[in-house]
């Protein structure tokens, strides 16, 4: 029997795109995937430790990638410029309003929102409009610690510590959450040699993706390195192929001021403890090659 199910998934990507060098791979992968109906990209802040204008830096990077992809029609909105001041105060933004708008649509199927940085804009949307919880919306978050024992003195996970208040708002809300914690997303490394063989030859976009990754490592990494974890890409993988993740369901925690796990409420979170990264990388490589080939043919 011929299926009548929708052929695309409706998604939003919230990205601190200029924070590191892996958001770029995730954004490109999503936009080159025909089953993802990307309803918008939201530029997210990434604190002020690396930049005083981090959200605007993310917006500029998104615009640069869309230029490489020749996709000027993709909707882009700015998110909050900073973390929430507390768990009861929203920072309104066009990004938060996009989330509210898409969550309440009833004519386009479920909504999935990938958060590749802090949860600021999701928390703001929930504080502005708590009824989002009643919609068919799934938050896919790259962030937070794993659910095993933390090493004594370990720093809190980066995406979490950039807005702990926002994470608590979202995890206490009851909205559907798929979390890819640090212990999972760090297992997505790819080496320079592989990137130089499979990504760099794919036109100006491929060359840029590899160059900016190596430049980021040279600027910020304290030790010799020839690899990078593409830690944001599992969020796109879960949109494309949710069966590629190994999940367990745990009680949704509260996060301490130091980024540790505390008992939460009555809700749960679906934790992706492992993802099929071989599939994810090869799918990305193939789509990037196809894009480069098609672009060459059009010139």
Features:
single chain; 299 residues; alpha/beta; two-stranded antiparallel ribbon; 12 strands; globular; purine nucleosidase activity; hydrolase; IUNH
Number of helices: 11
Give the end-to-end Cα distance, rounded to a whole number of Å: 42 Å
The amount of beta strand, in percent, is 15-25%
Poorly predicted runs = none
What's the topology here?
Blueprint: E1 9-15, H1 23-31, E2 36-43, H2 54-69, E3 76-78, H3 94-103, E4 111-115, H4 120-128, E5 137-142, H5 158-161, H6 164-173, E6 176-180, H7 182-185, E7 189-191, H8 192-198, H9 203-220, E8 227-229, H10 233-240, E9 245-251, E10 254-255, E11 261-262, E12 268-275, H11 277-298
Parallel strand pairs: 1-2, 1-4, 2-3, 4-5, 5-6, 6-12
Antiparallel strand pairs: 7-8, 9-12, 10-11
Could you characterize the architecture of this molecule?
- This protein is α/β, with parallel strands linked by helices.
- It has helices at 23-31, 54-69, 94-103, 120-128, 158-161, 164-173, 182-185, 192-198, 203-220, 233-240, 277-298, and strands at residues 9-15, 36-43, 76-78, 111-115, 137-142, 176-180, 189-191, 227-229, 245-251, 254-255, 261-262, 268-275.
- An eight-stranded mixed beta sheet has the order 3-2-1-4-5-6-12-9, sandwiched between helices. Strands 7-8 form a two-stranded antiparallel sheet.
- β1, α1 and β2 (36-43) form a beta-alpha-beta unit.
- The longest helix has 22 residues, at 277-298.
- The protein is globular, with a radius of gyration of 18 Å.
- One of its GO terms (molecular function) is purine nucleosidase activity.
- It holds the Pfam family IU_nuc_hydro.
- This is Nucleoside hydrolase.
